[in-house]
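Retro notes (design track)

What went well: tokenization of the new backbones is finally stable.
What didn't: we kept losing track of which sequence belonged to which structure.
Fix going forward: every design gets posted as structure first, then sequence, in one message. First example under the new rule, 352 residues:
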């Protein structure tokens, strides 16, 4: 055998939450419990199979225009991709070519260090405080870029806009990426700041608040300079990503702002209604500005609860990682799903 194996790029991949193929109560990947906008579903049902002989629109113009109208940001300041994972991955590749370390929290979206490793970007993971908060001052040191999920995941805690403004102000020589995957569930978006800071990239997704995890649509907004740089890298790699029905369904979902507001409000109402019930069972829960709780129990280890719930076909997320190995991330489902969760927890906790 030759030595080709020495030249294989070795990566430790991101570990997504399980997608069991049978019907379970699925509270482990922060999917929205409600279907996408009926307008988007109608577009998908009307899709023309014969039209797949043609390549799709590389600029996804229809989708970009819909985002432009809804957010009041000109089309040349919007970049779209196959989920925000695609957008974020492209952003790491595009903006983090420095020899200085990119900064992000030690407890955050676990794809960030995977991309940094994959693209050989130096990085430094900055510890959150004891109670899982981001300390803005920690990001005011020399760096090759900053990435912050706001609200953060899996902690669910949001930073106020002024705290993020401070981080951007202190980092005019690097690109600051704010990953707003959960922003529609309660945080305040820094989107208005893109007019003031040409180094701010705001990334959002259709996966959570627009109920489109399976559509795979994400987008970034920022200065034209940032967006042009992203497009150049994208078109140097793979031009044809989203298919035509997805571009059209994404545009329909984006334009249905009323539906998004209605469904996110329903999730938020469920989140707040069940918080005291979980607390009454002995859980401590961080203040959530998202569609999930980050919770630990005062008596029973998180791992035990995770496994016992799984036996009852209720899936939540657990990480056997330092600092968070006694916490669970629980997606907010429908009221009925949460009722089933509370029932199962009551049983599990009584028996332990
Ligand atoms: C869900 C999530 C994403 C990406 O999701 P996509 O489905 O790829 O859009 C990005 N960042 C955070 C923090 C997330 O939770």
């Amino acid at each position: 055998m030759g030595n080709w194996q020495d030249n294989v790029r070795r990566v430790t991949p991101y570990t997504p939450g399980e997608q069991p193929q049978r019907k379970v109560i699925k509270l482990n990947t922060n999917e929205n419990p409600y279907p996408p906008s009926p307008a988007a579903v109608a577009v998908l049902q009307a899709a023309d199979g014969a039209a797949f002989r043609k390549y799709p629109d590389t600029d996804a113009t229809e989708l970009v225009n819909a985002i432009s109208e809804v957010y009041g940001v000109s089309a040349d300041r919007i970049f779209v991709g196959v989920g925000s994972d695609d957008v974020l991955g492209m952003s790491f590749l595009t903006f983090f070519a420095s020899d200085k370390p990119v900064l992000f929290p030690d407890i955050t979206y676990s794809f960030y260090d995977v991309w940094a490793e994959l693209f050989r970007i130096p990085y430094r993971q900055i510890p959150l405080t004891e109670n899982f908060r981001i300390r803005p001052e920690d990001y005011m040191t020399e760096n090759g870029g900053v990435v912050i999920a706001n609200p953060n995941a899996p902690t669910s805690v949001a930073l106020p806009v002024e705290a993020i403004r401070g981080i951007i102000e202190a980092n005019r020589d690097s690109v600051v990426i704010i990953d707003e995957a959960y922003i529609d569930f309660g945080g305040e978006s820094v989107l208005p700041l893109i007019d003031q800071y040409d180094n701010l990239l705001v990334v959002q997704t259709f996966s959570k608040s627009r109920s489109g995890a399976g559509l795979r649509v994400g987008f970034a907004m920022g200065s034209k300079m940032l967006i042009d740089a992203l497009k150049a890298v994208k078109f140097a790699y793979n031009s044809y990503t989203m298919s035509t029905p997805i571009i059209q369904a994404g545009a329909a979902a984006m334009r249905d702002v009323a539906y998004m507001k209605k469904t996110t409000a329903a999730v938020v109402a469920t989140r707040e209604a069940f918080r005291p019930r979980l607390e009454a069972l002995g859980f401590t829960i961080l203040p959530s500005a998202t569609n999930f709780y980050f919770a630990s129990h005062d008596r029973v280890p998180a791992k035990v609860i995770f496994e016992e719930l799984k036996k009852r076909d209720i899936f939540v997320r657990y990480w056997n990682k330092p600092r968070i190995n006694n916490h669970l991330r629980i997606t907010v489902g429908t009221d009925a799903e949460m009722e089933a969760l509370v029932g199962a927890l009551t049983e599990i906790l009584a028996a332990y």
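Added context from the reviewer: Residues 118 and 349 are 42 Å apart (CA to CA).
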